Amino acid sequence: MPTPSYDLVIIGSGPAGSTTARFAARQGLKVLLVDKRQELGAPIQCSGAVSRHALEEVGVTPDAEFIHEPIYGFGIYNEKGDRTVIDYRRLKADEYGPGEGQKPLGYVVDRRRFDRYLMTQAERAGTEVWLKTEGLSYRPNGDGGCEVFLRRFNQDITVKARVLVGADGLQSQVGKWAGLRTHIKITELASCLQFIVDQVETEGLLEIITGHEWAPGGYAWVFPKGHGYAEIGLGVIPTMTDKNAQWHLDRFIRHSFFEERFKNSRILEIQGGGVPLASPLRTQYADNLILVGDAARHVNPITGGGIHTALSGGNIAGNFLADFLNQDKPPTAQNLEGYQNRWLEELGNKMWKLYDVKTEIFRKNDIRERDALLYQTMASYFSPHSEFKKI
Amino acid sequence: MPKKDPVIFFIGWNACINCGACVAICPQDAGFISPFDTIAVDRPCDIACLLCEDICPVSTITHKPA
């Protein structure tokens, strides 16, 4: 059998991989999207908050198939429980709300359904999708292409690609194959745990609780999850505490100013993961290879949010690769640097700025000073006047 | 820095939530993974930085000398 040949092979069908696939396939590239899982989105490592703007920007129509609950604003708390509310239903009442002619600010999505939806859109645009298919390695073969070694339902398969796209998440192996410096510092990876719970009231706001007391190095959150459920979670930086995320979450639920609010909570699901509060990767390309999404560390270093940045990065990557390969340019590292430059211009430079803001906060040794600065930064970050509100 | 003695990791699968944080922090080369989205448990780790134990949200990774 001749080796199957594609313009792009994309490893990982999360929001970044499937969005790259959709835009590339739409412009005529032959795309293979593979994922080792049997069910996309799972195990869930994410709270699922995404702005409406982020979906619209990449042509994704908010659909009941994947939306848990609409969001209308934010509640930012300091360590004592004082809060700043930024409710767009009040700030811009004619525009935001649940009524006719009004719209939500964003959504909490079900990552299983959301990732499957995005994969379906990629497939409908012409992408070939293989599930239960793991990427093993790749080898540039000198003629402008590379070979990608895959295993699908226990069968070893080699395919050819002009460009391999690593969209394999924070645990990315693809970046390591290419020898890129993907290593993240322990001081910049938050250890996160969240419970989906019943019997906790929410009010259409993403609630963010700051303070070293509750989440050293990170923050805690309470998000509405639809059907009367909520999501309670937090992320901590391991070097700033000698306890694990589970201990901090238990303490936050049972002994914080929300003790009363959480007292009847019942756990329905347990999820967790590492969330980078770090800079983007300095080099996101190599010969015949680029990285997108969490694999390229396209994650907001202040909020830890990664869906918007994955979707935008996928849009940039898919369109760049289509323009590039349709002109028959050789996909050398030197040429693929153009992808990273375009990404920096459209998104990355702002993320670097956010990283500087974040670093400045956590450089403060005095806990009270640091707490005050984090609270203030979070509150202004989500305000309608923030220069970063579209990240 | 003195070279550390290699270790073998042990994962308490009962508490593991398959979140992959251990793999995300791991400085090993590609492929030091298990089929369950964790660091490898079937061969020694010669770096022994133990960052995977620190990042685990449920502290379910331990080790013994290899």
Q: What is the helical fraction of chain B, as a range of percent?
A: 10-25%
**Category from helices, strands and their pairing of chain A:** alpha/beta
State Rg of chain A. Answer: 21 Å
User: Largest sheet of chain A, if any?
Assistant: 8 strands, mixed
| Number of separate domains of chain B | 1
Q: What coarse outline of chain B follows from CA principal-axis ratios?
A: globular
Find the structural class of chain B using helix and strand composition. alpha+beta
Can you tell me the residue ranges of chain B where pLDDT is under 50 for at least 5 consecutive residues?
none
CATH architecture of chain B: 2-Layer Sandwich
Q: Regarding CATH, which class of chain B? A: Alpha Beta
Count of alpha/pi helices of chain A: 10
Radius of gyration of chain B: 11 Å
Supply the CATH architecture of the largest domain in chain A. 3-Layer(bba) Sandwich
Percentage of residues in strands of chain B: 15-25%
| SSE succession of chain B | EHHE
The CATH topology of the largest domain in chain A comes to FAD/NAD(P)-binding domain
Structural overview:
The complex is a heterodimer of chains A (391) and B (66). Chain A has two domains: 185 residues, FAD/NAD(P)-binding domain; 136 residues, D-Amino Acid Oxidase, subunit A, domain 2 (D-Amino Acid Oxidase, Chain A, domain 2, 2-Layer Sandwich), CATH 3.30.9.10. Helix content of chain A is 31%, strand content 27%. Chain A contains ten helices and 18 strands. In chain A, strands 1, 2, 8, 9, 10, 11, 17 and 18 form an eight-stranded mixed beta sheet that branches. In chain A, a hairpin with a 5-residue loop joins strand 5 and strand 6. The longest helix of chain A is centred in the last third of the chain and has 31 residues. The N and C termini of chain A lie far apart (46 Å). Chain B has a single domain, classed as Alpha-Beta Plaits (2-Layer Sandwich). Helices cover 15% and strands 15% of the residues of chain B. Chain B contains two helices and two strands; from the N terminus they run E-H-H-E. In chain B, strands 1-2 form a two-stranded antiparallel sheet. At the A-B interface, strand 12 and strand 16 of A face helix 1 and helix 2 of B.
